TrEMBL record:
The chain crosses the membrane at residues 185-206, 212-231. The keyword Transferase applies. This is Glycosyltransferase. InterPro entries: Glyco_trans_2-like, Nucleotide-diphossugar_trans.
Length: 240
């Protein structure tokens, strides 16, 4: 079985060299398609329309995958399954890695039900019919919610995917999420509580109190973005 590969990037020069190296010598790769259109939500659809295979392997430009990635995820292709993605480890940020370890253990504060979309095998027919808003921040949540209505999204155990993540501006993230209704007010409160409580426990894994400072700074900016989003949306509402 061969599939087209879709890599989403602002700049092709910033694609992880190891990702390209693995893909270029893989026998399961049909064509490698690099999509540079913006924003990210639309880029996924635009790129999918350039693909010709039934399934598409979709990657962000900041991941590296093991050579047996396709062997692992393709085993989950079954009737009713429309997408498969595996967890990734943020190798450049010990704070985020520690946070995720703890958050998986504290289910009441675990907010995101979104698998790691940075390495996904997905059916083309599902993706090309997707019509998302022009969104960069939080677009993975909207995509996941859409795909789940079409079939099962499977997320197998960790298989070795590395993520070299760049932190997004929390103000812009919160603003966009409120504007597009990605989270309810309850969801935002839960998110903020998690980012105050979990970092304290995550110190046990990161072995540095800098983890607390790292996430509390993010949380403050996130709250600023939320307030900004609320004010803007309220002003727009009053103008109508």
């Amino acid at each position: 079985m061969k599939v087209d590969v879709l890599i989403l990037t602002k700049d092709p020069n910033k694609i992880r060299p190891k990702l390209l190296e693995v893909l270029k010598k893989a026998s399961w790769v049909n064509n490698i398609i690099i999509e540079t259109s913006r924003p990210l939500s639309k880029a996924r659809v635009n790129g999918a329309r350039r693909c010709s295979t039934e399934w598409i392997a979709m990657f962000d430009d900041d991941v590296e995958i093991p050579e047996n990635w396709f062997d692992i995820v393709s085993k989950y292709i079954k009737p009713g399954v429309v997408a498969i993605s595996t967890p990734s480890i943020d190798v450049c940020n010990i704070h985020i890695t520690a946070y995720r370890i703890v958050s998986e253990k504290i289910r009441p504060l675990h907010l995101r039900d979104v698998p790691f979309i940075n390495n996904t095998l997905i059916r083309k027919d599902v993706l090309v019919n997707y019509n998302p808003p022009p969104l960069f921040y939080g677009e993975d949540i909207l995509l996941y919610n859409y795909v789940k209505k079409k079939g099962k999204w499977i997320h197998p155990p960790y298989c070795g995917v590395k993520h070299f993540m760049v932190i997004k501006d929390p103000i812009e993230v919160a603003y966009a999420m409120w504007h597009y209704g990605i989270y309810s007010l309850y969801g935002f409160i839960k998110y903020c509580l998690a980012h105050f409580i979990i970092p304290i426990l995550a110190v046990g894994y990161s072995h540095t109190f800098k983890t607390i400072i790292f996430f509390w700074r993010i949380n403050v900016r996130f709250i600023i973005g939320l307030i900004k989003g609320m004010i803007t949306k309220n002003i727009q509402k009053n103008k109508k």
